[in-house]
Amino acid sequence: MKSSKSAIRAQVLAWRRGLSTNEWSARSRSICTRLLELDQLKSAHTVHAYWPLTAKKEVDIRPLIRSLSLQNIRVYLPVVEGNELLHGLYTSSEDFKLNSFGGFEPLPDPAFAPENVDCILVPSLAVDLAGNRLGYGKGFYDRFLTESTALKIAPIFSNQLVQGIPNEPHDVPVDILVTELDVYTANRM
């Protein structure tokens, strides 16, 4: 029997709150290492990532973002304005502003084109092996993911890999899941 989205969200958020800072950091570093080993990221020219909400212990991919940027890979980050998800080019976290969710983001870049993105790192609360993902419930990413044919990658802690996430027609699955333990290709059969 599938759990409800709200039950899965509550369970995962409670688990992440219980992570020690050391464990959160160590697991995040392992995920970043696995991400950097992905051929799809190595060959990318443009990546859309996210700046983690550290207070919510999202997978900390900041070192990955910096590394990609140093390799001259263009990295875009989400910019939330009202109910709209815009996108800004990462140049330095010193240029960020605080958003309404308590996260940091760059200024929007009107030149952003979803069709030019090679890979999207999708923040997720939980993902199942079919690639169905669960976010915070606002639908920002589902709307964005429909605009791009880019490879969709979910960096998650192994404890966020769950069975049978309820999905709806507007939900967009991810293609690859990367945990601190392994890399999974979504099985959509």
Tell me what the structure shows.
By secondary structure, this protein is α/β, with parallel strands linked by helices. It has one domain (5-185): Rossmann fold, CATH 3.40.50.10420. Helix content is 26%, strand content 21%. It has helices at residues 5-17, 21-37, 39-42, 62-70, 140-145; strands at 46-48, 74-81, 84-89, 97-98, 104-105, 119-121, 126-127, 133-134, 151-155, 176-178, 183-185. The strands form three sheets. It has a seven-stranded mixed β-sheet with strand order 3-2-1-6-9-10-11. A two-stranded antiparallel ribbon has the order 4-5. A two-stranded antiparallel sheet has the order 7-8. The longest helix has 17 residues, at 21-37. 35% of the residues are buried. The model has no long low-confidence stretch (mean pLDDT 90).
What key phrases describe this protein's structure?
Rossmann fold; alpha/beta; 189 residues
Total discrete domains: 1
Radius of gyration: 15 Å
Q: What's the shape?
A: globular
Distance between the termini: 18 Å
What composes the largest sheet?
7 strands, mixed
Secondary structure: number of strands: 11
CATH class categorisation: Alpha Beta
Looking across the biggest beta sheet, what order are the strands in?
3-2-1-6-9-10-11
Please estimate the helix content.
25-40%
Count of discrete alpha- or pi-helical segments spanning 4 or more residues: 5
| H and E string | HHHEHEEEEEEEHEEE
Brief digest:
The model has no long low-confidence stretch (mean pLDDT 90). The protein has 189 residues and is an alpha/beta fold.
